Amino acid sequence: MGLSTHVLDTMHGTPAAGMTVALFVTHGDEATLVKQFELNADGRNPDGPLYDNASLKAGTYRLVFDVAGYFKARGVVLPEPNFLNRVSLDFGVAHVDEHYHVPLLVSPWSYSTYRGS
Hints:
Elements (H helix, E strand, L loop, with lengths): L2 E7 L4 E2 L4 E8 L2 E9 L20 E8 H7 L12 E8 L6 E7 L4 E3 L4
Parallel strand pairs: 1-7
Antiparallel strand pairs: 1-2, 3-4, 3-5, 5-6, 7-8
């Protein structure tokens, strides 16, 4: 199934529908934008996997989640500057024959991630 992501809003107990996410391929300090998208009602990319198995390459990647923009759009009053602006997750793909799922659980003040299935 390649590479996928899913975001859950732990403040409201819902998927993070409407959050903007950007996917980059990285090489050292260089990052090349692959795609930017808005999460659907289920907190997922509306186009399905970010990469399918045939397209996913071994290497390093970055997902950037616009956390502050999402919570502001939901009407959450955030201090200036807010605690979390964007959450950037750098990760590696070693086995292209396996599924890499990168979930994010997030509030305006905290986040966690893991390699899902």
